[in-house]
Specification:
mainly beta, 2 helices, Lipocalin, 10-stranded antiparallel barrel, 3-stranded mixed sheet, 405 residues
Length: 405
């Protein structure tokens, strides 16, 4: 047979990733808020503060370039090893480590309008563009080359098992894991002036917030024969696509301090709402091993995406989204300013694609493991699907221009 399986115990692997935070930005926000609160007594500006000119009818537009870092996407499952996992010297070559696309570049645009001297509205949109990263492992299959294996937990054995990705003298093997992601957000807020007495201004924010985090994790393999074996095709693809859409309401406060041409502002926002999570699983085997090396045939299921878990899965969960931002800028003219800053955004519940992989596999249902089709399922319907969620953060730097009309 082209593939064989060897029972062997294994220990699951998981590599955590520490959550960094925005302590400095939060402290600055608290300091500014405390200073404002102590400065404001009564309805008239305190001594030494001058009432700011009316803002009614003004437009503000800002455009920013972003460079952000995301929390790594966990890939806790060992995908490829160079031997049995409990043997001395065996290494996990793919899987078992977080993947990240950092740093991620993008942009943010914000438009605001002062309806009156006290009330206003603003909308903001940011987008971190598609970015990908990958890791590979391969073996030539030549005599003396190392054999590569795909470990899994065999629910029919029971116990640990492997299937060969390459076998020296018979077929070569290569595998690739790849993560692709993008991040988008939008919000629409009303603003209410709490204080406007130079050099301070404090606004209350309230409105709606939307976030979209999409990540795709793919695991592809190729195991072609080497001479003198007949040339063939034996390729698999497992794809796990995770989409998180947040819909919520938010409140926030923004404080600004002006000193000559220089200014600083700090914003704290907190949103509550629903995180709609969906996971799409697909996979296939393409080969001509089963028809005397004729036209390539496609069969449902790769290695970890099997007929028992392929499809779309979705749910909604409660989520929170706090955000802290800090900017420092310089007013070039009355109507144009340049600024730079930092943003930290967090949410407590998202689905990351590689975390949805189930290593409990019934190999009877797929030709990737069992040889010539048809391969009807015999025994437990595994792998199955169960949601696994985790938290997520994004933080980074911004630089931009702001215009006032």
């Amino acid at each position: 047979m082209r593939r064989h399986r060897v029972p062997e115990p294994i220990k699951g692997l998981y590599v955590g990733y520490p959550l960094r935070n925005a302590i400095v930005a939060v402290l600055v926000s608290v300091f500014i808020s405390a200073a404002v609160a102590s400065a404001q007594t009564g309805s008239s500006p305190p001594s030494g503060l001058v009432a700011a000119p009316s803002e009614a009818g003004r437009f503000t537009i800002s455009a920013e370039a972003l460079l952000w870092w995301f929390k790594g996407s966990p890939a806790p499952v060992p995908l490829v090893s160079n031997g049995l996992l409990d043997e001395v010297g065996t290494k996990v070559l793919l899987g078992g480590k977080d993947l990240d696309t950092n740093p991620n570049s993008g942009f943010r645009v914000t438009v605001g309008y002062s309806l009156t001297d006290r009330w206003g509205a603003e909308g903001s949109l940011f987008y971190l563009v598609d970015r990908s990263t990958s890791r590979t492992a391969s073996s030539s299959g030549q005599i003396g080359s190392q054999d590569l294996f795909i470990p899994f937990f065999d629910v029919t054995a029971p116990g640990e098992n492997v299937t060969e990705l390459s076998r020296a003298g018979f077929f070569a093997g290569s595998a690739k894991e790849e993560l692709n992601n993008s991040f988008l957000g939008a919000e629409l807020n009303g603003t209410m002036k709490l204080l406007s007495a130079a050099p301070w201004r404090v606004d209350l924010l309230g409105g709606l917030r939307y976030l979209n985090l999409r990540e795709t994790y793919t695991f592809t393999t190729s195991s072609p024969n080497i001479p003198p074996q007949p040339a063939d095709v034996f390729q698999t693809k497992d794809e796990f696509d995770a989409t998180n859409n947040f819909y919520g309401a938010q409140l926030g406060v923004r404080a600004r301090y002006d000193r000559g041409s220089w200014f600083a502002n700090s914003t704290v926002k907190f949103a509550l709402g629903a995180m709609v999570q969906s996971v799409d699983i697909d996979g296939f085997l393409e080969t001509n091993d089963f028809n005397d090396f004729g036209p390539v045939q496609r069969f449902a299921g790769g290695y970890f995406a099997q007929p028992t878990n392929i499809g779309r899965h979705s749910r909604s969960v409660f989520a929170v989204v706090p955000e802290v931002g800090l900017n420092i800028g310089y007013r070039i003219t009355e109507w144009v300013s340049v600024f730079a800053g930092y943003t930290f955004l967090y949410t407590n519940s998202v689905v990351r694609p590689a975390q949805q992989i189930d290593r409990n596999i019934n190999p009877t249902q797929n030709a990737s493991f069992e040889g010539s089709p048809p391969t009807p399922l015999v025994g437990p319907a595994q792998p199955s699907f169960k949601f696994h969620s985790s938290d997520f953060w994004a933080q980074g730097l911004n630089v931009g221009l702001a215009f006032r009309f």
